[in-house]
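ARCHIVE CARD
CATEGORY: sequence design from structure
SOURCE FIELD: tokenized fold
FIELD CONTENT:
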């Protein structure tokens, strides 16, 4: 639809949300609406933003925001938009393969693109 965000616009918004999360942790009120980047650059921005947020929290704690508010605001919003991208992929005929997040290998501070292989429920 004409009013639907493109995947690139959604990814740009997710980057904005993660940067807003960092601002909240640091006690700042910054917000910006970024324009979409070429897909690979948007992905790089996503990983850079989540890495900076992760490193800040690991080094200095949550600072000016509670864990509940950080999750309730920017993190939950980013997860909702990740679902939108997954829905758009399914509509385009290229669905994301399901992953069993309960069985996923989670490692603290591993927030970059180099992740453990997906753990699938019935493979």
């Amino acid at each position: 639809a004409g009013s639907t965000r493109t995947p690139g616009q959604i990814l740009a918004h997710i980057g904005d949300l993660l940067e807003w999360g960092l601002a909240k942790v640091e006690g700042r009120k910054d917000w910006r609406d970024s324009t979409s980047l070429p897909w690979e650059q948007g992905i790089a921005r996503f990983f850079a933003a989540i890495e900076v947020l992760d490193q800040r929290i690991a080094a200095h704690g949550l600072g000016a925001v509670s864990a509940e508010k950080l999750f309730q605001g920017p993190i939950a919003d980013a997860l909702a938009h990740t679902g939108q991208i997954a829905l758009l992929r399914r509509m385009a005929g290229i669905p994301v393969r399901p992953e069993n997040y309960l069985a996923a290998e989670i490692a603290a501070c591993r927030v970059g693109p180099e992740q453990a292989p997906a753990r699938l429920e019935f493979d």
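CARD ANNOTATION: Residues 67-91 form the longest helix (25 residues). The chain has a mean pLDDT of 93.
SHELF: design records, drawer C
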